Amino acid sequence: MRGVGTHLRGVGTHLVLELWGCSNLDSASVVEQALRDVVDATKVTLLDLHVYPFSPVGVTGVAVVSESHIMIHTWPEHGYAAVDVFTCGEERDLSGAVGAVREHFSPERVQMMHIVRGILVD
Amino acid sequence: MRGVGTHLRGVGTHLVLELWGCSNLDSASVVEQALRDVVDATKVTLLDLHVYPFSPVGVTGVAVVSESHIMIHTWPEHGYAAVDVFTCGEERDLSGAVGAVREHFSPERVQMMHIVRGILVD
Q1: ∠ CA(B81), CA(B95), CA(A111), 5° rounding?
Q2: Distances from the Cα of B102 to the Cαs of A52, A117, B28, B114, in angstroms?
Q3: What is the DSSP letter of A7?
Q4: Which pLDDT tens digit goes with each residue over B11-56?
Q5: How far apart are CA B13 and CA B15, in angstroms?
Q6: Which residue out of B70, B73, B75, B119 would a mutagenesis test of the A interface target, given it has the greatest number of A Cβ atoms within 10 Å?
């Protein structure tokens, strides 16, 4: 996944995902596995992983990695999940990250924004 | 802090901050206090807080809150910090959040982007 943004040198790359019409949004174990699969797809180094189920519904999951973080928040009442994949260092397989997320939540619709973080102007 | 974005109804609001020319970027205790002060400024409920110092330099800090998350990553070698303040529910004092971050890192330059997450189209 290359685009104009990736030609600017930045310290990090931040993929903002909006998932609609999702399944499995109230499952802490699915959120955890999605985080682990994004970690694997992007070949980052996992430092810490926590999943927080909310009452009555909803889950937050965070994977802190050496190369920044992966975050998932779900709102089952809206069929919506917000996913952020923030990495630094070498180029990552962001398509693989999106695929991993899609596999677990089966969204009907996905919106994406890619932000280059910390653009270094030489 | 109101703008066009806040007139769209979304499940969350995500403030993306880019801080340049910063001080204290290699201090885990400053990162922790900045997270706590953003939590206070935005009146969110803290669930969990972790700070990860890196070798040789750099710190990641995450505050998981009932209303989503606050994340700080620092790159002292670039004088740069990436800060994300993602909240849901009622309107928050995002100006206060920015002020809390500024106070701890004294950035020479701040760039901001405000993303409405999970826009609900009626």
Answers
A1: 65
A2: 29, 18, 16, 17
A3: G
A4: 999 999 999 999 999 999 999 999 999 999 999 999 999 999 999 9
A5: 7
A6: B73
Residues of B in contact with A48 (CB under 8 A): 50, 52
Which secondary-structure segment (H or E) carries B65?
strand B59-65
CATH number of B25-89+103-112: 3.60.90.10
Q: Does A120 touch chain B (CB under 8 A)?
A: yes
pTM, to two decimals? 0.94
Query: For A80-118, what is each residue's pLDDT tens digit?
Result: 999 999 999 988 999 999 999 999 999 999 999 999 999
What six digits make up the tokens of B95? Answer: 């100006």
Domain ranges of chain B: 25-89+103-112
CA distance A9 to chain B (A): 13
ipTM exceeds 0.85, yes or no: yes
Q: How many CB atoms lie within 10 A of CB B3?
A: 8
Structure tokens at A10: 């930045």
Amino acid occupying residue B3: G
**Which residue of A69, A83, A105, A120 to mutate against B (max B Cβ within 10 Å)?**
A69
Q: Which two tokens stand for residue B32?
A: 């922790």
Q: What is the H or E stretch that residue A10 is in?
A: strand A10-20
